[in-house]
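User: Hey, my collaborator sent me this sequence without any context and asked if I could get a structure. I don't really work with proteins. Can you help?
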Amino acid sequence: MWLTAPRPTSVSVRSGRARLTGRDTELAAIVDVLRLRPAAVLIEGEPGMGRTRLLAEIARRPEFDGGRVLTGTCQPLREPFPYGPILEALRCAGDAPLGPLSPVAGVLRPLLPELAEALPPQPEPLADPVAERHRVFRAVRELLTACGPALVLLDDLQWADEDTLDLLRFLAGSMPPELAVVAASRTGPGARPGAPLRTGTAVHSARVALGALDVPAVRALAVEILDLPRVTDDFAAKLHECTAGIPFVVEETLRALRDAAERLPVGEVLSDRLLENLEVPVLLREAVTERLSGLPGPAVRLAGAAAVLGVGAEAGVLGELAGLAGDDLRAALLATLSAGVLGEVGDSKYGFRHPLARKAVYDTVSGPERALLHAQAIRVLAAQPAPPLTLLARHSRAAGRVDQWRHYAEAAADEAIARGETSRAIDLLQSVLAEPGPAQSDVGRVAGKLSQVALRGFRPDVIGTLEHVLEEVTLPPSVRGSIRLSLGMLLVRTIGQLGRGRLEVERAVGELVDRPDLAARGITLLAQPIDGLTPLSWHEAWRARAGEVYDRLDDPELRLALTADRIAAASHVGDPASWAEFEALSDTVGTVAERVQLARLWCNLADGQAWAGYLDRAQRLVTEGVRRATDAGALYAIGLIQGTRVRLDWVRGQWSGLAETAEQLRDSYPELGPIVMESSLVLGGLAAVRGEFATAARHLTAASVHAPDQGPIPVVLSAAGVLITVRLATDDVDGACAVAAVAVAAAGRKGVWIWAAALVPAAAQAYTRAGRWPEADSVVEAFARGIEGRDAPVATAALVAGRAVLLEARGKHLAAATLFDEAASGYGALPMPYPATAMRERAALCRLAAGNRDAVDELSAAAEAYEHLGATRDAGRCRHQLREHGAWAPSQRGRRGYGSELSPREREVARMLAEGRTNREIADGLFLSPRTVEQHVAKVLRKLGARSRTDVANKMPADSRDRTCGVIAADVP
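Assistant: No problem. I've predicted the 3D structure and written it out in structure-token form, which is a compact way to encode the shape of the chain:
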């Protein structure tokens, strides 16, 4: 963290400022006041908060286009020019004709030669300087009155001279009726206290204090400057922490990140590690250096000591490091506070506002002085009642005391493990193992700790570390087996490493013959059936072996781990007894490790209950599981349960913003297989609903639909069900049957048929459309046998749906309609509104095929339900069917006029145009005629002012671009 290296030559090109972000509320309030006249607004804020940017944004507002906008800036001069910023603003007042001026305005001729032709002759000077000064004040006021509607913007008022402040006070007391003044002033150390403007009661006024940006505003700036579609929550939070939300620091940091990205692999720009090691941006470094240059020597030493220490500390601690005490310390501290170099960061503690400011000061301290200060910091910190172990480790390393560093780093990791601070513990242990020199026994001990704590989170780099230890270090069998066991468990979680991970776990179980407690962890992992094509019977053999081991265990944490895994595994396969066993389990535990196991249980059980169709249960488990996992530092469980959460939102029809959430989740855990696959399943399902079939197929491929041996089988089979519907929607019946064949074979080989609930109705549909009746009947009956005795209501509804598909295909429409209604009720009770609506649509179509015209109302209701969900393509299909039956009717909401705004249907067409769709593709996706699409396209281009189809994406309103699934109104045919 503190180590420095020569900075490489770099070129940083600034392409202009980013747009003003995070100040919408302040800007709107200021504009509202300024539209009333006369008006005065004071904007205050610490350096870097964006006062100048806000003034520039005000100047560009269209509300003020009809009048003069005059700007002036105070300069940080030792002897400021009298009235400098006001005269700077007024020199452009003559760009438009002025109103009448009395002779007194002529006094401004020497001060404003640019306006000489517009000003009256200069009067004779007065003998009394005070009277002459008053005449200048009156002249300025008269000139501003002659300007008519005018907005005066004055920046950096903290550097204004007394004459300027007196003139402003004079104007504030009796402002011209059409004048508005906005003054910006710096607050904080060294700034002039108080407001220079005290307006009369007739003046509309406001005082705006600018604070730091919040995390959402920082995220928005990152998206813009890095030119990315989104950034993760973790990155935005880390960026906010590193910059304290100060706009200037945020922008400069992001520009430095953008420049660094050109020298790094794709994606590395968003790593926390890069943020922490980022070189201080040039402008920020210069700003800090400028402040340091004005400090006396003792204050500079104190700032350097604070930078080396790295955390906020009491004045006495900083003074001891800097060799200052008494009045010298007090004077130095006051100087650093006044210059804004240091600030109060807690109760009687002083430090830097953000890490980059600390680093900028740290880089000014010479190498020998740094080494001495780090050594002194070790002595000071080690003497405290509760020594900060992580800090001691960092100082020891920076001071070159390697053995001392290893000692403190391992002790700090132990402390982090006990507190549930998983990431910190992993970082510390990784750093110890990366440094050459420790004895093999020390390596084994540290690697053992790393292998255990790594299971709480997911850090792909740990895999390489553990592999290196196993290959290069001679270790006792039990130590080797323990490390190998964790390695295998980490590999199982990694995309494409399932088989390799299980092999490592099996090897570890063999190496742990003398440690049945550790072997039990491997045995229980092998008993988990959810991943890959290994038959359920194989997992059940390991499950029985885990039961035998359980009775010989004394460790309460390990017994709880095996119990949690047993309950979760039973829930996943639909064991009716699993929920009762969970409810009977005590949740009173003492250690962090036991809390981690309980958190894992809640998260894994939420997943199992969701696949079974107990969605309300699953939702409650997710909420409580996140809380428990967060409290225990179970980072892997926290990540895993996010996949369950987005899938729950998908099946429950809660689609608003879901695509962005799923994409962000996948980006946050790019190597964590279960999360990537679940989020890809959700994204594929949403794309299919929108009719974006190529996108859907791409996402479903990432869900391992074509490689079932590498993914969670419930995800794979569900993805296959969606992909079959995509193939059938494009009349690719052979392709649909090919997907069905692979997925059905996978379900049969695995032997857990409740996971095929989304697959079976779709596979039956594909086979019947292909005329492959034996296969259609076989898959439904195999599903019926497979779910018998299982506790999975979603599978029950799917079986009814599959049988309804068979009846419909055989022309038994009324019987099929009855089963479709039953399936709709089953799905609706879960609740799964999208398949429930699909079943109602199918029931209505069956009745229409049987000649029952009353089913028109049912079909119309299905269209309305689809619209409510946001399933625009399905709603369009229902409307198309209604038109085919001569029964289309407007929505009950009725038509409305949209004027120059896009109608809901036009928004949908605009979105598809922005995606590059052709008219034919839009017509197919919305079930419209090509002629109707042509009319909609013409209206979209006209209303958006787009020059061409390719320009639509740039012209679309933000709310239309960002919608996950647009909703079309039923009043548009």
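In plain terms: The beta strands are 39-45, 68-73, 150-155, 179-186, 204-210, 313-314, 343-346, 349-351. You can pass these tokens on to your collaborator as they are.
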